[in-house]
Amino acid sequence: MAESPITPRAKDFATWYQDVVLQGDMAEPAEIVKGCMVIKPNGYAVWEVLQRELDQRFKATGHQNVYLPLLIPESFLKKEAEHVEGFAPELAVVTIAGGKKLEEPYVIRPTSETIVGHFFSKWIQSYRDLPMLINQWANVLRWELRTRMFLRTTEFLWQEGHTAHSSHEEALEEVVRMLHVYGDVAENVMAMPVIRGVKSRAEKFAGALQSYSIEAMMQNGLALQAGTSHDLGQNFGKAFDVQFQSKEGKLEYVWQTSWGVSTRLIGGLIMTHSDDKGLVLPPKVAPRKGVIVPIYRKEEERGPVMEAAEKLALSIGAHVDRRDGQTPGAKFFHWERQGVPVVIEIGPRDLAAGNVVLKRRDTGTKEVIPQDTLVAKFNETLDAMQTDLFAKARQRLADNTVTANSLEEVRAILDDVTAEKGGGKFVMAHLKDDPANDAMLKEFRATVRNIPLEDHYDGPGKCILTGEKVPQRVVIAKAY
Amino acid sequence: MAESPITPRAKDFATWYQDVVLQGDMAEPAEIVKGCMVIKPNGYAVWEVLQRELDQRFKATGHQNVYLPLLIPESFLKKEAEHVEGFAPELAVVTIAGGKKLEEPYVIRPTSETIVGHFFSKWIQSYRDLPMLINQWANVLRWELRTRMFLRTTEFLWQEGHTAHSSHEEALEEVVRMLHVYGDVAENVMAMPVIRGVKSRAEKFAGALQSYSIEAMMQNGLALQAGTSHDLGQNFGKAFDVQFQSKEGKLEYVWQTSWGVSTRLIGGLIMTHSDDKGLVLPPKVAPRKGVIVPIYRKEEERGPVMEAAEKLALSIGAHVDRRDGQTPGAKFFHWERQGVPVVIEIGPRDLAAGNVVLKRRDTGTKEVIPQDTLVAKFNETLDAMQTDLFAKARQRLADNTVTANSLEEVRAILDDVTAEKGGGKFVMAHLKDDPANDAMLKEFRATVRNIPLEDHYDGPGKCILTGEKVPQRVVIAKAY
After folding, report:
1. Is it true that the peptide bond before A193 is cis, omega within 30 degrees of 0?
2. C-beta neighbour count of B298 within 10 angstroms
3. Nearest residue on chain A to B32, judged by CA atoms?
4. Is the dihedral of CA A40, A43, A49, A54 positive or negative?
5. What are the respective helix, strand and coil percentages of chain A, to the nearest 5?
6. What pLDDT was estimated at residue A1?
7. Are strands B355-360 and B342-346 parallel, antiparallel or unpaired?
8. Does the complex come out with an ipTM higher than 0.90?
């Protein structure tokens, strides 16, 4: 695909985002299928890194992967009242299969709590079968009206963990454990700081007692819900009759959890770190951490330069850009847009001096270094870049988090914010967790993002709407 | 789930297979969704190993992973005449989405050649864009009437490679390259010998010029098509207008290939190696290569035995079965059915003597060895088991491959074979590649499996049906 200019963030953040996604070979709209995208090679490779990082943490915490059917009998969705209400408007329905009209239609899974409920009721009989800890990597479908690549697409890829426990206490421990796994990957792999907290009642998952989330701040100040972990209580246990015999010999309903992150994470990654030159990938999620661009003009220079490039590439596990018929300039431009953390150039002059040139993607810094220091310098640069990107994002979050003590203050701060123009803030305010209060924020299109697990602010205070005393401030923001 | 007896192979092969799948925690029928299964933890873990082995080979041969939409506009399927004829009867159709009847229904992908055709036409303009080498890991749906877990299910997991080339010659090289990648994984990872060959015209993929396959022999002598690689010629290029400007400046249609293996491989794995005690997994595909079962009766024995078990487990990367309330006997039984290659037991007497007991799954051999030789002996046993399982399967293939020189001979050999009773053979016969001849074999439910790439037999001969001279014998067998 031809490379076009990238719209600057300051001009139009939403268009900038789309340009970065397209030019970074991350994804493109599928068009022919409403609201879908194609995940392209660079985007899918980032997803593979995230999958690996998450999956090893899921396994280390005792979960096993399984695969459940894509199709769900329509009647299943209706067994949990809140759940069907939440998902019914977004369903894609299969009514014909094998050339015949189906007696009972199937829906394509928007999430799998119902089918998990069905199988848990088959698999769980006794407390000895608990906890049951499973996860699946899968595609799901939700018929969304307004879509944006990675952030909200009709079909998306995700993982969904589903667990069953013998007590509410143990289930809650699981919910919080997995929230922290997500926080760990977001911060320590993706270099994306997040606020861990409880969703307000108005914003919880359809069918849950309580939902937890990690919320990140994008460069335009908008919030992105990057992962959720739900305490399902006994709602699905009762709807699907998942009972177990307790140690005491009593028949009880299981306590369930579910938790998920999706390809949406990649949207968050992009909007946290990328710049007006294109994609910036933190080294730990970059499929290619380094690329070597050999430079030569005359044919007799080619051999020695390529030889040195291949040797250096082996020493640091980098890719050599061997493409003929592309100028070095075009190659630099290409890898910059793909977000490669470190690009190394080597030409005849460097070769003669025993040097290479090392360019760091986020700062644009160019350094000439002796070849024999490359391994150390390369790893050091990757570490520094990872640390610096996180620090920068954390500073941005701190700088754009403000407190407000009245609805008018909240409104004044958030009123003019749009995804395109930016200027968004996280507003910390005392607000009682009541759907009626959340509704008041709709007027200026803000929502309660979550009630942070750790209260970094000033403790209890009076609700800005009702005056009632509440234990801590909540995060109010405009969000994707 | 309670463990039940496994039906012996000799009594009923099909029931034996189902028992092994269920008792080995590999899968179970989903029932609520016609012809679907749930892939359970042990089955999914095997799939993860196969994915890893395949994926690294795809990447090493220059392919990149992408993800394409699950839904395909119905009209796309109709653009390639043979393709729609082949797949139309098996489609699941989405007619309602987001609460509304769709103007144009979508089908759930049965395979993605059509959607790939659409995107290739957007992505490919010039010979510089070629070859284009992509792969996707995905679920697909084909509404099948008769299903068996792993072997044929309505929904299954697979990978589908799709490539575009500037010449037919280069495309054919790709087709054969990927066939050999499949053969390599089948034989050198799964220890499942296969015959690489060309499908007869009657059996080729709907829309291909020619299809290649790997065919394996199950323990009942039936054939299993374990992977296919297709030369699509310019069929999809023309249907979806995928043209490129050649080096000479001419506009030409691309030459495409596609190739896939699926969770069906796991069915082949099971029917190649497992026995009347349950699952047998070759070490290279076993998610857990070794498990240590600690044995103790008195409480004071527990500490020292567990300590030794944990230490030994670390040295060989094995899992310790720490479950309380399960007898050692129940634990051995459990891991045997899960196909764990090597189970190690250690009790107070072994501890006193400085020994451990090592049991090999396929042969049932038990060896008492000094603890300090465990690492070497463990690895040696895994290697030997891998080699022996392959040799045994290869011998079975050789022993059950026979030649026939007339239709009557073919019939006599294959007439009484059923999946349940076994007795199947691969019959090598001279047969002209003509759908009319394939049709003659239908009478006794046999098919031409493929025309082997290497003619191991006796060269040219007369077609058993038409008397015409043909270059080599083909494989005729009953198949899954």
Report:
1. no
2. 7
3. A73
4. negative
5. 40, 30, 35
6. 44
7. antiparallel
8. yes
Pick the residue of A22, A36, A47, A108 with the most B CBs within 10 A to test the interface with B by mutation.
A108
Region for A474 from its dihedrals, namely left if φ exceeds 0, alpha if ψ lies in -120 to 50, beta otherwise: beta
Reply yes or no on whether the pLDDT at B471 is more than 60.
Answer: yes
Residue B2 pLDDT > 60, yes or no?
no
CB distance A140 to A110 below 8 Å: yes
Q: B65-108, pLDDT tens digit by residue?
A: 999 999 999 999 989 888 888 899 999 999 999 999 999 999 99
Confidence of residue B175 (pLDDT cuts 50, 70, 90): very high
Contact A54, A63 (CB under 8 A): no
- Spell out which residues of chain B touch residue A99, defining contact as CB-CB under 8 Å: 88-89, 91, 143
Contact predicate A464/A410, CB 8 Å: yes
* A180: helix, strand or coil: helix
Cβ neighbours around A78 below 10 Å, total: 14
| Distance from C-alpha of B270 to C-alpha of B264, rounded to nearest angstrom | 10
Report yes or no: A118 at the B interface, CB cutoff 8 Å: yes
Residue for token pair 């993860």: B48
Nearest residue on chain B to A124, judged by CA atoms?
A: B1
Contact (CB, 8 A) for A46 and A269: yes
What is the overall mean pLDDT for chain B?
A: 96
Other C-beta atoms lying within 10 Å of the C-beta of residue B396: 16
Strand A461-462 to A155-165 pairing: unpaired
DSSP β-bridge partners for residue B294: B346
Domains and CATH numbers, chain B: 13-273 (3.30.930.10), 288-384 (3.40.50.800), 401-477 (3.30.110.30)
CA distances from B272 to B224, B239, B394 (A): 10, 40, 10
Q: Profile chain A (480 residues) by mean pLDDT over runs of 10 residues.
A: 80 96 97 93 98 98 98 93 89 96 97 97 96 98 94 97 98 98 98 98 95 98 98 96 97 98 98 98 98 94 95 96 92 97 97 97 97 97 98 97 96 86 92 97 94 87 97 96
Report pLDDT for B432: 98
Strands A132-141 and A64-65: parallel
Contact A319, A282 (CB under 8 A): no
Partners of A140 in the β-ladder: A156
| Percent above pLDDT 90 for chain B | 91
What's the rounded Cα separation, in Å, for the pair A422 and A14?
A: 9
For the cut 70, the answer to whether the pLDDT of residue B1 exceeds it is no
B3 — pLDDT class (breaks 50, 70, 90): low
Check A71 against B38: CB less than 8 A apart. no
| Phi/psi of residue A30, nearest 5 degrees | -85, -20
Tell me the one-letter amino acid at B127: Y
Q: Answer whether A36 touches B (CB < 8 Å).
A: yes
Closest CA to A71 of B142, B260, B44, B152: B142
